[in-house]
Write a structure and sequence with these properties.
Order of helices and strands: HEHHEEHEE
Structural class: alpha+beta
Number of strands: 5
Number of helices: 4
Oligomer: single chain
Mean pLDDT: 88
Shape: elongated
Helix content: 25-40%
Length: about 170
């Protein structure tokens, strides 16, 4: 980043840095508690034969999507242990849904995470999707090491001072 005024102002918008540029955990103590919801998604693409194994439930490791769903829930609850400046949160709800896209030889995971609190659950939703897709990879890598995980991103969030945000496109 260049040291021009515009770049310095952008740095000032990053809440995990203090005025000296040092990383810190954001103080949320004075924030209002609101219902917070975040939705993230991502996709894993694979060989057609691998997708057939997942659909038929005949993977040697068992129910791939069932295990991936549990992994997503667990990952959302462990996010503050993985990402250094995330607050530990009392999550009230997590869902992980999978859509098989036969024509694209892919599985898309959509995770929704909710809490009632002082900070959002965007990182928890992103962690849920990431770990769900990594779990699919892990369970199927013996037959397809060329699987590709892509397009992990936040789709929407609501709650808090900034309100609702929905991705474009």
């Amino acid at each position: 980043m260049n040291n021009n005024v515009e770049d310095i102002n952008k740095l000032n918008d990053l809440t995990h840095f203090d005025s000296a540029g040092q990383a810190h955990m954001v103080d949320v103590g004075d924030k209002k508690e609101t219902k917070r919801v975040a939705v993230a998604s991502g996709t894993i693409t694979m060989n057609p034969e691998t997708l057939s194994l997942i659909q038929s439930g005949s993977s040697k490791k068992g129910d791939v999507l069932g295990v991936a769903r549990i992994a997503a829930i667990q990952a959302s609850k462990k996010t503050s242990e993985l990402i250094p400046l995330c607050h530990p949160l009392a999550i009230t709800r997590v869902t992980a849904d999978f859509e098989i896209q036969q024509a694209l030889n892919s599985v898309t995971c959509k995770a929704t995470v909710e809490t009632w609190g002082k900070t959002g659950v965007e990182m928890e939703a992103l962690s849920a999707v990431s770990v769900a897709l990594l779990t699919i990879y892990d369970m199927c890598k013996a037959v397809d090491r060329g699987m590709t995980i892509k397009n992990i991103g936040l789709k929407e969030k609501s709650g808090g001072k900034s309100g609702t945000w929905i991705t474009k496109g």
